[in-house]
Design a protein that fits this description.
about 50% helix; Helicase, Ruva Protein, domain 3; Rossmann fold; 3 domains; 14 strands; alpha/beta; five-stranded parallel β-sheet
């Protein structure tokens, strides 16, 4: 449903245009001059403004100018009885979408409205496209060679052509939103909006208004009618990330919206029909949440029509170097960067608890540390080895019942550290969490035993 503001100082003209538009299913507000219209435009997200040119207080041309100054991209159609060439040229020069003279035929008005609303949709889509292009330019493409990711992409491509609900699971940082974006852009809805929503980032008290929108005056601070994410995504895809964090009350209302394919704004009575595809993602075990009563079983079945699991980076080792080189190339404005053999081994041996997101951050940190020749070495990535040593060595090691030779274990660790760092003693010391002096003592002891 489109929202249209009619601006005219003649009450009869306002009434006539409203009847024509409401009969076609549009929602219409009215204003008697440009001053009142501008106040309403600031408060409400209109899809189209139809305005007379000559009005008291503020005329149509001034209204158009004020809207441009406020960066309000809503298209404007002028209607006037004073059809002079000069006023038409001036209006077109300022960016008016169309120009109709009185008296007019209803068919002419409706055709103009339909065409101009098409312009409004294009404007909104261009804004969303720019946002998505900015994301892609930040290194958010899907890069892979591993069999596990190939299987994920195969499944995503298969389900893209349908309208089935998809539940994407996996650890944080594995690229669940990228998979959702791929499904949308590979689907028949690709020309409509892809609207991501992080359910974990919304205050529980605001979930309903964020998803379904609200009417002016619905609650304290609701000073304008506002579209929710469902309405904004109409015709396209709504991606609900971290769906497991949605409160139970909101889960019930989400289920109702998915079943009825209608929503109702907070504070409103009108049932608004919508055509939206739902994709969901979570890093939680929804089966477990259902069992503990924290997630509705009926909603789980509704969103889990086609499950896709994104593998952690440690299970797709073949992709690590490819991804690292990809991130480095973007960080260097398209210039190639070289990973040494030691750096490659360091990347492949690290556990990557933060997955691809952590890898991207690590490459950015490596570029800051890098001397400037474009080579990333094991020494450059010593912060990863230190983190790995601190995080895992003590907690993960279990003393076997028959005991061990501590000296033999120490010497074996020295050999491994030197092999990983290509005999770089400083880097090997970092890998074992030792000072260089202490490491040299161990290394000398190892050399003495082997001699």
């Amino acid at each position: 449903m489109a929202y249209i503001l009619v601006v005219d100082d003649e009450e009869k003209m306002q009434h006539l245009l409203s009847i024509m538009l409401v009969r076609q299913g549009y929602s219409v507000d009215r204003a008697g001059d440009g001053v009142k219209a501008l106040e309403m435009i600031k408060e409400n997200p209109y899809d189209l403004v139809i305005s007379d040119i000559r009005m008291p207080n503020m005329d149509g041309l001034t209204l158009l100018s004020e809207m441009k100054a406020l960066d309000i991209s809503c298209p404007v159609v002028f209607i006037t009885a004073f059809a002079t060439i000069d006023s038409a040229v001036d209006a077109m020069r300022q960016g008016v979408a169309d120009y109709i003279t009185k008296p007019f035929e209803e068919e002419r008005i409706l055709l103009t409205v339909e065409r101009t609303l098409g312009i409004s949709r294009i404007i909104a889509e261009n804004i969303e496209l720019k946002r998505q292009l900015l994301e892609v330019s930040g290194g958010r493409e899907i890069v892979y060679v591993s069999e596990k990711m190939a299987e994920v992409m195969k499944n995503a491509a298969q389900v893209a052509g349908s309208d089935a609900a998809v539940l994407i699971t996996g650890e944080s940082g594995t690229g669940k939103e990228l998979i959702a974006g791929f499904i949308h852009h590979s689907s028949p809805r690709c020309k409509a909006r892809f609207v991501p929503v992080n359910c974990a980032a919304i205050s529980p008290s605001l979930v309903e208004s964020e998803l379904f929108g609200y009417e002016k005056g619905a609650f304290t601070g609701a000073d304008r009618r506002t579209q929710g994410k469902f309405e904004y995504a109409n015709g396209g895809t709504l991606f609900l990330d971290e769906i497991g964090d949605l409160p139970l009350e909101a889960q019930a209302k989400l289920l109702r919206a998915l079943q009825d394919k209608k929503i109702q704004r907070v504070g409103g009575n009108q049932q608004i029909p919508l055509d939206v595809r739902i994709l969901c993602a979570t890093n939680q075990d929804l089966d477990q949440l259902v069992g503990s009563g924290k997630f509705r079983k009926d909603l789980y079945y509704r969103i889990n029509v086609f499950p896709i699991e994104t593998p952690p980076l440690r299970e797709r080792i073949d992709d690590i170097v490819l991804l690292a080189e990809y991130f480095l190339k973007h960080l260097r404005d398209g210039k190639e960067a070289r990973l040494t053999e030691g750096a490659i081994r360091t990347l492949q041996l690290y556990n990557w608890p933060g997955n691809v997101r952590e890898l991207a951050n690590a490459m950015e940190r490596a570029m800051i540390i890098d001397s400037g020749d474009g080579s990333i070495t094991a020494e450059t990535l010593s912060f990863l080895r230190a983190a790995s040593c601190t995080a895992g060595s003590v907690d993960q090691f279990k003393l076997p019942p028959n005991g061990i030779s501590l000296e033999a274990l120490q010497l074996d660790l020295v050999r491994q550290a030197l092999a990983l760092t290509i005999n770089n003693q400083s880097a090997a010391a970092n890998l074992l969490g030792l000072t260089r002096a202490n490491f040299r003592v161990w290394a000398k002891q190892m050399a003495g035993n082997e001699g």
